[in-house]
Amino acid sequence: MNLDLFSVTVMTAIVASVASLTFILDTLLRRDTGPGRLWAVAFFCGLATTLAYMAWSAGVGGAVSVAVGNALFVSVPGFMLLGCRRFNDRSVLVSSVTVGTLAVITFVAALIEYPTRGSWGGWWAMAASLVVFFGAGAAESLRSPMRGLRSAWALSTVLAAAGVFYAVRLVVFVTLGPQSELFSRWLGSLSANIVTVILTMV
């Protein structure tokens, strides 16, 4: 069975939408505060990311859709990290500034490089930011008191796996380029969407 990028993007959007809306509605119904709201923002960013990428794959928006999608994607693990820090009663000021700064850098990098590199424009900035936030989130979720929850270990595993995946993608992207056989076959957009679906379900 051959999967095209648009079909896989739609599949990812459906899974992400169900997960995101479920968490956001649960947060609103329970009137959760603190970390719950930050995690809800992370899920909302994930939902908006899939919509931006769907728009691009459908030929709508061009550079803007890619830039918005990349910046929102960076915000997903960024707000997951902020939620973990809030849960552990640690300051979120520096982390918040870092999330905002890297999201803006990712957005601008995509706009600047899109004319010459297409949808891969600025991708390196997004991937590097994802590695930082996924890794930091995985570590933060295992700090006390959050580490006392079994679900925190599952969350840490998912964030760590995502961080490793994007770290490998970034290394191959920088050394061999997105057109290389290794990257396009095993680490391209199709693979990334499938990995996203699996990790979201977990």
Structure summarized in a few sentences:
This protein has 202 residues and is mainly alpha-helical. 81% of the residues lie in helices and 0% in strands.
Describe this entry's structure for a reader.
By secondary structure, the protein is mostly helical. The protein has 8 helices and no strands. The relative contact order is 0.11. The model has no long low-confidence stretch (mean pLDDT 91).
Features:
single chain, 202 residues, mainly alpha, 0% strand, globular
Question: Which sheet architecture does the biggest sheet show?
Answer: none
Please report the distance between the alpha carbons of the first and last residues. Answer: 24 Å
Counting DSSP E segments of at least 2 residues, the number of strands comes to 0
Principal-axes geometry comes out as globular
Radius of gyration: 16 Å
What is the beta-strand fraction? under 5%
**Content-based structural category:** mainly alpha
Average pLDDT, rounded to a whole number, is 91
- In N-to-C order, the SSE pattern is HHHHHHHH
Low-confidence stretches: none
Helix content: over 70%
Can you count the helices? 8
Please describe the topology of this protein.
Elements: H1 5-29, H2 35-57, H3 63-87, H4 93-117, H5 123-140, H6 150-176, H7 181-187, H8 189-201
Helix pairs in contact: 1-2, 1-8, 2-3, 3-4, 3-5, 4-5, 5-6, 7-8
